[in-house]
Design goal:
With 475 residues, the protein is of the alpha/beta class. The chain folds into 2 domains: 292 residues, Zn peptidases (Aminopeptidase, 3-Layer(aba) Sandwich); 136 residues, Aminopeptidase i, Domain 2, CATH 2.30.250. 30% of the residues lie in helices and 23% in strands. The strands form 5 sheets. A 9-stranded mixed beta sheet has the order 1-2-3-14-4-15-21-17-19, sandwiched between helices. The protein has a 7-stranded antiparallel beta sheet with strand order 8-7-11-5-6-10-9, covered by helices on one side. Helix 4 crosses helix 14 and helix 5 runs parallel beside helix 9. The radius of gyration is 25 Å and the shape is globular. The mean pLDDT is 95.
């Protein structure tokens, strides 16, 4: 009987060759032990708290800055020569932040950079937003980033942003998040009257100009004035914030989903939240830097703005603020910024589209990313014939894979959809333009760019591990 059991468990030559030669992905949910799963779950509790506090890029910067200062980071001074172990940060106009820990090796041997973005699709208020129509008050909006417009109707919304009064004082606005706060919404047609609407393509069923947010309906009690509901709303805002309608003209105000980050599934395997793209990569990149100790190579975490609209403007990575920071850091040591950058390595940390078995036709299974299989490496993103992308070199891609394998980081390869199906971009090409080796890594996401996205807790923690090992590595 024993010999029969031995024969049945012995592997054939073909099975042994398969193990040696085939590339097989991992499934963390099957392979991790209970303690490792508990580590992931515990890490994600802090991540959920961060997400609840950081629905806009300004809030994310404030939260990351608070966390960094608690760990000894101090504002960067370009006149100072920073030595090994120094922990510094620079904030760019309140919407982007760079964290750095100075390593033991000279700066001209390069730095290790991670770059993620902290802006997400949303409904920005127009500069002259408040109007009244048939005794209802609304805000006009201009959507930001790539959205499916129909997803933003009839969901609870919260108002976030900043207003500067005529005297220059800053007013921070956050309404709809706390218990007892009012919330807001975009209305939609009832199905009984939507026959024509439902005949339209999904992209046209809800027009951008109709994404108007309902904000009030009770008139000011004075029948001698006009636009009494608008007047009543302005009166409330004046009493609370000390503003007038003219103050909207320079304000940055946005409507974001009011939903809190929550566990998804009976087994709590997933997190549902607004803004996983790309804070689910930004948070691991930042927290890994806070935890990396004193690395050999100076480690830099860039959390940037405006990626969702092409990384434009002076807070996006299509500007030179990262190159200027590196140059300012290097100058007191006698190096030019280019001396540092040309020897540097980067992980461009952005999400990828997780394979969804309900919608399998837009993804090519052999080259898709999957939940519960770890951090995703994407050699390139872009669209069509690899337009608008960085394409990581074979040398650098192989070195990152070796690092993750050596350090026990769960990873997978993934491409953003079928070749001619669509595509998307990241900040990688802007980092590459600085003469830096860079590859995209990140978390696979279900329902990306929706007001409520889904990620696996195991993948979030695997991404943190990837960032931590990268900072500590000798790449």
């Amino acid at each position: 009987m024993d010999s029969e059991n031995k024969e049945s468990t012995e592997k054939t030559r073909g099975e042994l060759l398969r193990e040696k030669l085939f590339y097989e992905g991992t499934n963390l949910a099957k392979e991790l032990d209970d303690s490792e799963i508990a580590q992931s779950d515990n890490y994600c509790e802090d991540y959920k708290a961060f997400m609840a506090a950081s629905k806009t890029e300004r809030e994310a910067v404030e939260e990351i800055c608070r966390m960094a200062e608690e760990r000894g980071f101090r504002p960067f001074d370009k006149r100072e020569k920073y030595e090994t172990g120094a922990k510094i940060y620079r904030i760019n106009r309140g919407k982007a932040i760079i964290l750095a820990v100075v390593g033991s090796k000279p700066l001209d041997e390069g730095v290790h950079i991670t770059a993620a973005h902290i802006d997400s699709p949303r409904l920005d208020l127009k500069q002259n937003p408040l109007y009244e129509d048939t005794d209802l008050a609304f805000f006009k909006t201009h959507y930001y980033g790539g959205i499916k417009k129909y997803q933003w109707t009839t969901i609870p919304l919260a108002l976030h942003g900043v207003i500067f009064r005529a005297d220059g004082t800053k007013v921070e606005v956050r309404v709809g998040e706390d218990e007892g706060d009012p919330q807001f919404c975009v209305t939609d047609l009832l199905p009984h009257l939507a026959r024509e609407q439902m005949k339209k393509p999904m992209a046209e069923a809800v027009e951008g100009e109709n994404l108007n947010v309902l904000i009030g309906g009770r008139p000011f009690r004075d029948d001698k004035a006009s636009e009494l509901v608008k007047l009543a709303i302005l009166n409330l805002l004046n009493e609370k914030y000390g503003i007038t309608e003219a103050d909207f003209l320079s304000a940055e105000l946005t409507m974001v989903p009011a939903a809190k980050p929550v566990d998804i599934g009976f087994d709590r395997a997933f997190i549902g939240a607004y803004g996983h793209d790309d804070k689910v990569c930004a948070y691991p990149a930042a927290t890994a830097l806070l935890d990396c100790g004193v690395p050999e190579y100076t480690s830099v975490c860039v959390l940037t703005d405006k990626e969702e609209i092409g990384s434009e403007g002076n807070t996006g990575l299509n500007s030179d603020y990262v190159a200027y920071f590196i140059a300012d850091l290097a100058r007191p040591h006698g190096f030019e910024g280019r001396d540092v950058l040309c020897s540097s390595k980067c992980l461009s940390a952005d999400v990828n589209a997780a394979f969804d078995p309900i919608y399998p036709n837009v993804l090519e299974k052999r080259n898709a990313s999957y939940v519960n299989r770890g951090v995703v490496l994407s050699k390139f993103t872009g669209h069509g014939g690899k337009y608008d992308t960085n394409d990581a070199s074979a040398e650098y891609t192989a070195s990152v894979i070796r690092l993750f394998d050596d350090r026990g980081v769960a990873w997978q390869m993934g491409e953003l959809g079928k070749v001619d199906e669509g595509g998307g971009g990241t900040v990688a090409k802007y980092i590459a333009s600085l003469d830096v080796d860079v590859i995209d890594v990140g978390v696979p996401v279900l329902s990306m760019h929706a007001p409520f996205e889904i990620v696996s807790k195991l993948d979030v923690y695997a991404t943190y591990r990837a960032m931590l090992e990268f900072y500590k590595s000798k790449l």
